[in-house]
């Protein structure tokens, strides 16, 4: 399962504050991507950094992404929309220069549009125009000589236009709305801000099954296996996000997502951006959790394989052996706590298979393992 992790911006620990220095630090930390933040404005003096970052990205395969203006009014009146679109134009130019693979946009308040069909159609129309504009400025053969030193502008595919899920009820961008628009506008992708989805859903992402259902829903709606996501801790109240927090201090935990990715996420190709106030520190924490979840899965598979081999040697069914092991563990825990031993489970009372008759043990006796050390290995 390909998984790229990185921070939303230059790492906090980076001594220099340029994008290229940030890319070097991110690579040194074992991370593979970043998202440049242009949430307020795109300053002209930043373009020197953008070109340098674009060249480094093209030569090394480092995945660059970009976040457009944070405050948007695409559902406002004509003046408000024009103001937002002018900011988006500047971010599109920056995305071209920096070789961004995704550029993330917000939509803003519902404004004068009704929720549902009216608002979704307006957003779809605007985003279709943004996709067309992106294609115009990206692969312009008339500019090939001007961009000879920057071959990705002509040779690479244009950046994908990302539509981000919002974290507040008064803002357009529920998961269903984002999927509806991106499913109908080619060249757009949903940006799954998992903290926003969790907050807007009143804390809906708590177990690995919750994350599995989310990714299955997206796959069933728009197809594909490639996902662009944001993750952070979040403070929320009454279905509204209040502010980002570090992951360890939030009720949105990364461990269930790491468990899902390890056990059922083989089909996924994910870029995960850390929006946490701790940026690269929480990106490293997420990487660590993914590695631990993968390690636990390998250990579980090894225990299951050993149990199956032991069951065959004993002439028992693996499920029966597992039930007996669980019963022995419950007895030990009860003895340690001074409680009466629990009644044996029905599975543990089963007769052994005929192949086990050669054993001198009685069929209804619990299997006693040789030592505590073996016990630890099995469980």
Summarize the structure in words.
- Mean pLDDT is 87; it is low at 350-379.
- α3 (78-98) runs parallel beside α4 (117-138), α8 (208-222) packs across α9 and α9 packs across α10 (280-314).
- The chain has helices at 19-28, 47-60, 78-98, 117-138, 152-155, 175-184, 194-200, 208-222, 255-264, 280-314, 318-337, 372-378, and strands at 3-7, 33-37, 63-67, 100-105, 108-109, 160-164, 171-172, 188-193, 226-231, 233-237, 240-245, 269-274.
- The longest helix has 35 residues, at 280-314.
- It is built from twelve helices and twelve strands.
- It has 379 residues and is of the alpha/beta class.
- Strands 1-12-9-8-6-4-3-2 form an eight-stranded parallel sheet. Strands 5-7 form a two-stranded antiparallel ribbon.
- The protein folds into two domains: 3-296, Alpha-Beta Barrel (TIM Barrel); 315-378, no CATH class.
- It is elongated.
Number of discrete helical segments: 12
Can you list the strand order of the major beta sheet?
1-12-9-8-6-4-3-2
Unreliable parts: 350-379
**N to C succession of SSEs:** EHEHEHEEHHEEHEHHEEEHEHHH
Nearest-angstrom radius of gyration? 27 Å
Q: What would the CATH topology of the largest domain be? A: TIM Barrel
Strand content: 15-25%
The CATH architecture designation of the largest domain is Alpha-Beta Barrel
Number of strands: 12
